[in-house]
Task: inverse folding
């Protein structure tokens, strides 16, 4: 009986996922000046209904930007959810819209062709701003090298397949699951593939250390520094930004770092966090504040969330 119930639940979840994907396929036909306000409305609804994630965002903003008064922090969280709603609905464009349309909507600044010229493999260091997926799409539209990336496997197989298919659909992305060995990805990097690396999330203390993030101890991966050093990689920061209204996305490929990696992975992690802090201050409402960045705590420290 339990097995039948489980199968029925899985079937229902898969049907719901397929219905959601059908809606996304329809949404991609809307002009962005119309899709954008729909996304903002979705974000306002998510803020009202998603009490736990709203509290996470409020806690993060209070910890990281204490110089803001309560009214300014509340306004920032409201704006963040509107951008978050946009980023969710606009996956419809990134997964389904024609290449020509995306090339018009994604505006690249800086040297996206570094990986094509470099004799050394390139690591794109990409913090989790809400246009991170648009940045990934840009690496497939505007340069010619095959890109490798780690991704988090989704619990629903229908959504997992759709995410993977959407991110690989232009033929220049190769995704590797975080649940599997990193060896295939390392081999891809050794073949010269650039590595798209969003590495600023709390993945626990495995290969990580507590280093400051806005003055708070944050479990921060040491793997980016160690990987870049062991494979002699060029590290180029990349930042994605959603533009107002129907203007699309700005993807900034910044100058490669000449002081990173060093022989001190923990110092490199702190250097990376300081850079991310500076980018957040530039565009505070679009950082992924709903992520539990301080979930992993130092020994003896009280939980934050």
Result:
């Amino acid at each position: 009986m339990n097995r039948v119930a489980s199968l029925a639940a899985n079937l229902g979840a898969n049907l719901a996922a397929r219905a959601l994907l059908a809606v996304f396929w329809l949404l991609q036909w809307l002009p962005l000046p119309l899709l954008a306000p729909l996304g903002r409305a979705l974000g306002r609804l998510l803020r009202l209904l998603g009490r736990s994630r709203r509290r996470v965002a409020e806690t993060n903003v209070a910890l990281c930007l204490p110089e803001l008064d309560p009214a300014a922090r509340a306004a920032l969280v409201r704006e963040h959810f509107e951008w978050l709603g946009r980023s969710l609905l606009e996956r419809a464009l990134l997964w389904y819209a024609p290449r020509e349309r995306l090339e018009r909507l994604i505006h690249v600044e800086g040297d996206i062709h570094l990986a094509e010229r470099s004799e050394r493999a390139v690591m794109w260091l990409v913090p989790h701003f809400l246009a991170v997926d648009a940045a990934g799409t840009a690496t497939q539209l505007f340069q010619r090298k095959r890109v490798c990336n780690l991704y988090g496997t989704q619990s629903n197989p229908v959504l997992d397949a759709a995410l993977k298919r959407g991110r690989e659909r232009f033929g220049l992305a190769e995704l590797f699951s975080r649940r599997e060995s990193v060896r295939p990805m390392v081999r891809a990097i050794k073949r010269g593939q650039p590595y798209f690396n969003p590495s600023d999330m709390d993945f626990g203390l495995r290969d990580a250390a507590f280093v400051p993030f806005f003055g708070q101890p944050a479990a921060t991966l040491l793997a980016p520094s160690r990987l870049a050093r062991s494979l002699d990689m060029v590290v180029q920061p990349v930042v994605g930004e959603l533009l107002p209204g129907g203007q699309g996305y700005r993807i900034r490929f910044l100058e490669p770092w000449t002081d990173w990696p060093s022989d001190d992975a923990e110092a490199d992690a702190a250097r990376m966090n300081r850079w991310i802090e500076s980018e957040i201050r530039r565009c505070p409402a679009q950082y992924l504040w709903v992520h539990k960045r301080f979930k992993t705590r130092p020994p003896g420290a009280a939980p934050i969330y």
